[in-house]
Amino acid sequence: MKVNPKxxxxxxxxxxxxxRTLSGMARPLDRLIYLASTRDYNTGIYYHDxxxxxxxxxxxxxxxxxxxxxxxxxxxxxxxxxxxxxMNAYMDSTHTSPxxxxxxxxxxxxxxxxxxVDTDLLTAEFLFSNFxxxxxxxxxxxxxxxTAAPSAWLPRSPGQ
Amino acid sequence: xxxxxxxxxxxxxxxxxxxxxxxRNRRVEGGAxxxxxxxxxxxxxxxxxLPPAILxxxxxxxxxxxxxxxxxxxxxELFLQERQKIVLSWVAQLRKQILSLKEFHLGAARFYxxxxxxxxxxxxxxxxxxxxxxxxxxxxxxxRGPYAAPRMAGRAAAAAARVCxxxxxxxxxxxxxxLEPFGGxxxxxxxxx
Lengths: 160, 193
Prior knowledge:
The complex is a heterodimer of chains A (160) and B (193).
Chain A (H helix, E strand, L loop, with lengths): L4 H16 L7 H10 L11 H4 L4 H21 L2 H14 L4 H11 L12 H24 L16
Helix pairs in contact in A: 1-4, 2-4, 5-7, 6-7
Chain B lengths: L1 H48 L2 H8 L2 H9 L2 H34 L2 H4 L4 H28 L5 H21 L14 H4 L5
């Protein structure tokens, strides 16, 4: 069996990234946003200084892109309930006011630029649609409890 | 007079020959385009539209149960509208790619693929059933919402996978292993390079 040496390098770089950086981000949403932020908006090329000291630029770029696609798959596989939970936790981690956060996300839809460039139309549409619904749910929670963060909102039991 | 008739006959013959040649060229070019489009359609179907993971997520009911249990009425409506859009988009894309494969099988496939008449008949029936299911699914989802016919969606996906399988075999001749190495004999005989 022939092993592509370049691919092996990419795998090593991706493993390194997972072990050192991504392991600190438990939620796929956090990983997706972080990895999207390592990508140059003008060229679509990913950069990572730490990895670049040990691997070539092309290998680093491919490893980051692989991990980005992995994060997207994990997020698309998350249920809506899980996505709401992840968004809530992410919102808390930004230390922004929930009202401002929800307003900005509804208006700017930053999730649209957070997906890998080769994401297919159906997957992207599905994820964006779930983000839209999750934001509406978070907003409704905030409207019900304006003084508390949405995480403090107690969900109703199905019988209520 | 006789000479004029001969000239006219010869001229007509030449014009006819030119028309036949032009038509043959057009068909070959159109055929290459159809093969390319069929290959594209196959990739879109297999990579984007038919993977079970995305289909299961779209038609899973746990998101609906969560929204019904946890969210106010207007969000429930928003959720159903959004899911309806996604399902309709999936069906429309599926139908478009299937139509592209159908065009290939109706036209170019017979030039390239050696399908038996029995296989061609079965394939024609599959296309007919699949396109009918897509139409029925579109109507059901428009009228009764995204979760109206999950079984029909499953049948559409299964029939589409069958059509992909046939089409993949028809397009097998494009695989590198089936092609002569570039350079043909020259590759085997370096002195010709």
